[in-house]
Amino acid sequence: MIKRSLVVALSTTVFTSLFAAAPASAETVKIAFIDPLSGPFAPVGQNQLKSFQLIADMANQGKWAGDNKIEVVGFDNKGSPQESLTQLKTVIDQGYRYITQGNGSGVGLALLDAVNKHNERNPGKELVYLNYAAVDPDMTNSKCSFWHFRFDANSDMKMEALTTFMAADTAIKNVYIIGQNYAFGHAVSRAAREYLNRKRPDIRIVGDDLHPIGQVKDFSPYIAKIKASGADTVITGNWGADLALLIRAAKDADLKANFYTYYGATTGVPTAMGPSGAERTKIIGNWMANNEGLNGKEVVAAFKAKYNDDYYAAQTHSIITMMSQAIKRAGTADPVKVAFALEDMKAQSLNGEVTMQKKDHQLQQALYIGTWTKANGKDVKFDQENTGYGWKLNKKIDAYVAGQPTSCQMKRPG
Question: What is the pTM of this model?
Answer without folding.
Answer: 0.91
